[in-house]
């Protein structure tokens, strides 16, 4: 099948899922065309089956806002015609589902029929999409897509609750290539980061308000009062500066490392003992799944789809949003003795197996086939 994938090319979860999906589909013999404004960060190699088409948005001084949706839908029209793309799979409703619908209409005018599969990822529904300024366009684009998937049951419920949806949404959870995480680093250079008796706690995100970064730091502050520990803060975003200040205020600067954006997530997770994700909302929590696949237990909130990923008392613990005290106590419970820690590490790894890409990617293939079939009949 020739599939066009539209996504954000950044470090965010939706872009990562879209890229990993495209790469796996290409290995399974499909021809994949990524169409976005720059090469996705996890897309290192282009090949016979993997193509990248850049969307250019010419700057014009008249426009206060450059019209990306317009450039994207025009590019989609051109690429579908040029490469004979049979189906468009757009990740993140805003503005991708909207731009794809426009492309579909333009192509129909020229006698070219192409179905659209939209995958909802989270903030496109819970934070941005449900804002009154976007809501009508997001509702319209979801209802007009030929198939819609969401990355968790919780996100499906949110979508049904927040929007007037007149169609079915299929839940296809995010996935992980377990083989990538079955690395046997003979040496992940743990000693560069911490002493032998220190536990390593890690947080990875885009440092947005929704991640509740101050809670990450307060939880760590409580942990390091109980046992020797270091905190690895990985990622960039608007809350980072305030986080650095809080670390200074609490007098723990010598115990916290800020990495910025990193291409070495697997190495950082390899030497981590615990992952913190105290988010306010989280449709799935791909970062938590990546941690578990690296045998790192997770302390998270119980919001959104997190309880579908992290199993309370098994792969980690879940608490109410903002309950820093309970999250700190649970973290110490896991870290205090080696046997408990090793048990949680093994459980985290076992839990991650449920999201093996070999089980999940065929669900997307099935959706593509069904959608193409029913689209052509109508
Ligand atoms: O976490 C973010 O803010 C990035 C965002 C994105 O769109 O890339 O992540 C969302 O999609 C991920 C992939 O499906 C999910 O794992 C994240 O839970 C979700 N983020 C939120 O719901 C806040």
Report on this structure.
The strands form 2 sheets. A 7-stranded parallel sheet has the order 3-2-1-4-5-6-7, sandwiched between helices. The protein is α/β, with parallel strands linked by helices and 378 residues long. The protein has helices at 13-27, 68-83, 93-109, 123-126, 135-144, 153-162, 178-181, 213-226, 240-249, 265-270, 286-293, 306-309, 324-335, 338-352, 357-377, and strands at residues 2-6, 31-36, 50-54, 87-91, 116-120, 147-150, 170-171, 199-204, 229-234, 256-260, 274-277, 298-301, 316-319. The chain contains 15 helices and 13 strands. The model has no long low-confidence stretch (mean pLDDT 94). Ligand GMT binds next to helix 1 and helix 4.
Summarize it:
This protein has 378 residues and is an alpha/beta fold. The protein is 44% helix and 16% strand. The protein binds ligand GMT.
Summary tags:
378 residues, alpha/beta, Rossmann fold, 7-stranded parallel beta sheet, 6-stranded parallel beta sheet, 15 helices, 13 strands, binds ligand GMT
In round numbers, the mean pLDDT is 94
Order of helices and strands: EHEEHEHEHHEHEHEHEHEHEHEHEHHH
Spatial arrangement of strands, main beta sheet? 3-2-1-4-5-6-7
> What count of helical segments does DSSP give?
15
| Shape type | elongated
Would you tell me the structural class of the helices and strands? alpha/beta
Span between N and C termini?
20 Å
């Amino acid at each position: 099948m020739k599939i066009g994938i539209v996504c954000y090319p950044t470090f965010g979860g939706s872009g990562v899922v879209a890229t990993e999906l495209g790469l796996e589909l290409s290995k399974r013999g499909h021809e994949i065309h990524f169409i976005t404004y720059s090469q996705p960060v996890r897309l290192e190699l282009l090949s016979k089956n993997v193509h990248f088409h850049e969307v250019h948005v010419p700057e014009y001084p008249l426009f206060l806002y450059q019209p990306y949706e317009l450039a994207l839908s025009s590019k989609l029209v051109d690429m579908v015609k040029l490469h004979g793309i049979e189906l468009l799979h757009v990740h993140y409703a805003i503005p991708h589902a909207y731009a794809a619908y426009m492309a579909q209409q333009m192509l129909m005018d020229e006698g070219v029929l192409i179905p659209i599969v939209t995958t909802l990822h989270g903030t496109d529904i819970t934070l941005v999409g449900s804002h009154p300024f976007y809501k009508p366009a997001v509702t319209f684009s979801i209802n007009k897509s030929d198939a819609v998937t969401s990355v968790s049951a919780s996100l499906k419920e949110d979508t049904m609750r927040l929007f007037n949806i007149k169609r079915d949404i299929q839940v296809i959870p995010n996935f992980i290539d377990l083989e990538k995480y079955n690395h046997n680093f003979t040496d992940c250079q743990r000693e560069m980061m911490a002493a032998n008796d220190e536990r390593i706690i890690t947080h990875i995100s885009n440092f947005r308000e929704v991640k509740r970064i101050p809670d990450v730091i307060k939880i760590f502050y409580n942990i390091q009062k109980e046992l020797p520990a270091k905190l690895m803060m990985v990622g960039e975003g608007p809350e980072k500066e305030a986080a650095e200040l809080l670390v200074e205020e609490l007098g723990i600067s010598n115990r916290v490392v800020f990495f910025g954006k990193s291409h070495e997530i697997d190495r950082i997770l390899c030497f981590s003992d615990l992952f913190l994700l105290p988010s306010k909302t989280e449709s799935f929590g791909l970062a938590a799944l990546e941690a578990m696949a690296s045998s790192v237990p997770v302390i998270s909130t119980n919001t959104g789809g997190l309880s579908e990923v992290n199993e309370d008392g098994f792969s980690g613990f879940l608490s109410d949003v903002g309950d820093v005290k309970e999250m700190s106590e649970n973290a110490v419970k896991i870290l205090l003795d080696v046997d408990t820690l090793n048990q949680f590490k093994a459980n985290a790894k076992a839990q991650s197996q449920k999201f093996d890409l070999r089980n999940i990617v065929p669900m997307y293939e099935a959706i593509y086939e069904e959608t193409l079939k029913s689209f052509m009949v109508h």
